[in-house]
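seq:
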Amino acid sequence: ATFGRRILPQGLAPRLAPIWLWFLIPNLVVFQPWDWDNTKFFAYWALVGSIAVAALLVRLWQHSRGGMVLTAVLVVLLCLAGSLDLDRSLDTSQNTFLFTDPGGIQVAAWVRTHTPRTAIFLVAPVNNEPIPTLAGRRVVSGYPGWLWTYGLPGWSERTEDVETMLAGKPGTARLARRFHVAYVVLGPQELQGYHGSVSYWEAQGSVVYRSQGYTVVRVKEAS
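struct:
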């Protein structure tokens, strides 16, 4: 009976009680539009909750010889469960993501040293585009997923305009002037995912960089 009343050390339970809000509220309120994004709150709940689990194991260990055996079994099971997650996280076939290729690193380095810091680039609106992430240059439109999450207005139309310009479709020249495009990057992501037209942009400006699958064109109006 005493063990049942005092699983946690005196005064610990009230201190741990508020962490249950981190479990209950994210199960009822969605704070981000991304699916499963609320799960990050549960990490803090589990972290603080581990204090209560540790206290329970200590009490079991101190209770009796049977409690020692049970504690040892529980510790082994907890470690095995964690090992399964660790093993999965170390599996490169499931957890490897190529942020950019050597050509992307090289073109980003070139852009940093050969273009004005205020220049605006037309690139594919993806979250691993090397120009905004590695070169630190402004782009016409970033990754739509983040723009949508942050609630920025007009992100869908802006993304469509980028697709139009990369492919050199009718209206491209007008849009390029509207967004003050100074440089156009045509790399693997622009060519494969957005049908980027190298021939169109070569006719609209001058090629200032070409290496490892990446072409940078300086737009005539920006010269």
